[in-house]
Each structure stands twice: as C-alpha cells, then as structure tokens.
Amino acid sequence: MNDLPSTQASLFGLIADRLGDRTDHPFLIDPAGAVLTYGDMLARTAQLAQAMAAQSVRPGDRVVVKLEKSPEAILLYLACLRAGYVFLPINPGFKHIETRHILADAAPSLAICAAGGEAEMRAGLGADGSVLSIDALEAEASRQASRFETRQGRADDLAVILYTSGTTGRPKGAMLTHGNIAANGIALRDHWAFTADDVLLHCLPLFHSHGLFVSLSCSLLSSSSVILCPRFDREQVIDLLERSTVFMGVPTMYVRLLGSARLDQARCLTIRLFASGSAPLLPDIFDAFAARTGHQIVERLGMTETAINASNPLDGPRRPGTVGPALPTVELRIVGAAGERLPTDSVGALQVRGPHVFVGYWRQPEQTEAVLSPDGWFDTGDIGKLDRDGYLTLVGRAKDVIISGGYNVYPLEVEAVIDQLDGVMEATIIGLPHPDLGEAVTAVIVADSGNRPSEQAIGEHVKERLANYKVPKRVLFVDELPRNDMGKIQKTKLREFYRELYRSS
C-alpha cells in the first residue's frame, strides 16, 4: 500500500504518529463544552482494547457495536483499530430482525450494546459469541492499564465491515482494510486542507461511512478537534457554527438550515468548508445557501465500498449539479454495456479504482466478483458522465434507470427539470410496471400547498425541455418522501407502494 509509510501499517498507528506530543489537544468536544483530549483518547482506547481482550477477542475477530452516537462509540472504534479487531457498527434504530441478520452473517466474537439490549443481541449470536453492555465493558476497562502496544499488522488487514443499505436485497457486509480507510482519509485531509487548527461540527451518524470515515478520518489524521452532536438539531447547529471551521452534512440538513432566519453570513464567519454528500444536492439549494451565507457547498461522491471518490475542489470552480473531479489517488472511468471505455460527455456506468476501494463483501464471493474486476475496477452501480475537465455528473443509479417503450430514462435528468418549477419543493422519478410501455415514467412530488403546479403544467414543462418518452405519465403529490437515515430517498419503497398504479387504471 504505497499511501502508507512502510513502518506504519495500522490506521491507529498513523493517527498516533501524526499526533506526536500534542496529547493535550482537544479531540472530542461536547456541545456544552466538555473536552476529551487526544491524551484521554490514547488512555481510554488502551483500556478498552484490553477489556475486549479479556472477553477472548483476538486480532481479526469481529466486534459488533450497537450504540447511540456518543464518545464511547468512537472510542470503541478506535480501540478496535488499535488492537486489530474488526469494528462492525449497527444502526441503533434497527429492529430485531435487521440486527439478527447482521449478527448471524458476521459471526462476531463480541457484541456491545446499550444496557437492556443484551437479550436481543444474544438471540442473534452463535454459541461462540459473547455480549456485553457498554456499562459492563467500561467497568472492566476501568480496571485495565492505560498503556497498550498498538498492533501493527498489515495495511491489508481488515479494519471495518459496514453493511450496505440492502435496497437490492439483504444487506451485504463491505470489508474495508486499514489501508483502504487510511488512503482515503489522507487524500481527503490533503484535498480539503485539514490542519490541527480545524474544528469539525459533526452531526452525522457513526454507522455510515460519511460519519465514521469521511469526517472523522479528516480530523483524526490532522489531529484536529470534533464538536460531537448526538444528532442534527437545526438551532443547535446554527449556534455551534461560530465555534467551528468545517461542517459536513447531507442535503436535507442544508434545506433545514435554510429554513431558519437565524442562518446568515455572520454565523458562518469562522467556517472555511461546507461539504455535502450521501444524496444529490439540488442546484437551487447550492445557490440559495451561497446567497444566504456567502459559502458555496462542496459536493462530493462517496459510497460504503469506497468512501470518497470525487469532490469539487476547495480552491477552484465548484460546479452545482456535479460531484467534481476524481480525488488525486482515484481513477474514474465511464464504460458502455460491453465494458468499453466511453468518450467524454458520454453517459454510461461509473467505475472507480484506487487504494481506497474495498476488498469485497463478507462471505459473498459471487457478489464480490460481480462488481470488482481482477484489475481493481469497482462497478459502482451509478450512471454518469465525465466532462472534458474531469468533472463527474451523476445521471442516476443503474437499478433506477427506467426502460419505457424501449428507451432508457435517467431519473436525475427529469428530476432536475421538474425541480425548476415554482412550487415544487422536491421531485423524484420512478418507473412503474405498465402493460404497454413495460415501465412508465412517474413523478412523485412534494409541493408547496399554496403554490402547487398542476399535473398538466408539470407535463408541459417537461415536454418543452425533454423528449416525449421522458415526460411523466402520472404525477403523484405526497406530503413527504421516504428516506433512509442518511437522507437518501427510498425509491424501492415508492415503487412497491405504487406498483399497481397503471395496472388498475
């Protein structure tokens, strides 16, 4: 792994080396002002690593963690990295059936949960796994020494397993190595110019790569500080902006921030970077945020299997509607149906390659082989195009492409046109079974109740700008769109709910 120093293969070792003797520097800051220093982090991860070892956890074993966002959850992540255990976070909002699938698939040696959740965790574990509440683990950790020799291992040692959202079936465990996470973290730290003077306002969940890798890696690999918010609270975030230099969010967060009259340029004077990802950022939101705050949001492209692939530049043109060029360590290409590389501005399947790309899906070699080529190219499932400057524009997900009357329709193209209409707050396009067309282009829209455009007006607006086969056959108005925890619209749920629309009409 060329991105890692030959003497340091452990991600935790890189973090500690970067820190040097700045152990009194603030690491985690509570919104109320309480501080946990990097020295505290070193001591407590040493104790936690030994406490887990006392439960017979060994390097390479999986440790499942189902906890609300907290300093303890971050310290557990770092303790696992330090000891060579494989960290596996679970969304604390998951119900029993969702948790049970992951536990059965991952076969962890240890599962850690909030007090009162032990019985649920034990029900999903095999005979060889053990369960501890975070309270019990911390009690054991308090009896351990505060020094621990970080396991060096190798850059290709497994560090984390993140389970994908499962929109195309049962969730799969994406395996990421110390080298994968470090390579992407170093590239992002440098690309976004993080230094020890930065203060990240962290409002993202920790069970997803956006909150666990993208944001935390930048901070950890620059020895900078993190204001850790349990969740996104609009008014709290606006208050904390004046104590921060970086904010990373999802588009929904930016929409909600714009909904407060308190958000203005004065609140954002110390911020040097606003970044957005996990879902498309509408150009209108980009423009409105810039007008209100004086800041252009940096949009980027990431995913569970790779963390960040592309980003609009920190210094240079930030083009709304694009996710920017590839990071310096990343290769991007657009390919056709036969796998041939397509020329500039051609629409096709997006593939990426680089030291950040995951090594495969846990215990699913067939699924791995289907998306990861022998020479390292990962088929992302995204449809996009690259312009002559290397800026990437996403057109949609391959699974979301609609084939209507034999023509391919890319939802993002139609959504962008509908979003231009006054009164449209948000639009999403799905394909539904149709007896004649195969699939019918269908718009599902959240609109301003006092200024809602008619279905006819929407159809005429699209028809003036796009080919007839891209015009929605029906427009459905809803109060809100279903989303997952990262703000992505769950089109699978919409397709299932409306699947009989054209069959019954």
For the structure shown, list the relevant keywords:
Rossmann fold; 4-stranded parallel beta sheet; 505 residues; alpha/beta; 8-stranded mixed beta sheet; 30% helix
What fraction of the residues are assigned to beta strands by DSSP?
A: 15-25%
Total count of helical runs of at least 4 residues? 15
Terminal CA distance reads 58 Å
| Name of the CATH class of the domain at 38-177 | Alpha Beta
User: Strand order across the biggest sheet?
Assistant: 2-1-10-9-11-12-13-14
Number of strands: 24
From the helix content, strand content and strand pairing, which structural class follows? alpha/beta
Unreliable segments (pLDDT under 50, ≥5 consecutive)? 1-7
Indicate the percent of residues in helices.
25-40%
* Cα gyration radius (Å): 23 Å
Overall pLDDT confidence: 92
In short:
This protein is α/β, with parallel strands linked by helices and 505 residues long. It has helices at residues 11-19, 38-53, 71-83, 96-106, 118-124, 134-141, 178-191, 209-220, 234-240, 251-258, 283-293, 365-371, 411-418, 455-465, 491-497; strands spanning 26-29, 35-37, 62-66, 86-89, 110-113, 130-133, 158-163, 173-177, 199-202, 225-228, 246-249, 273-276, 298-303, 307-311, 331-335, 348-353, 360-361, 378-386, 392-397, 402-404, 407-409, 424-434, 438-447, 474-477.
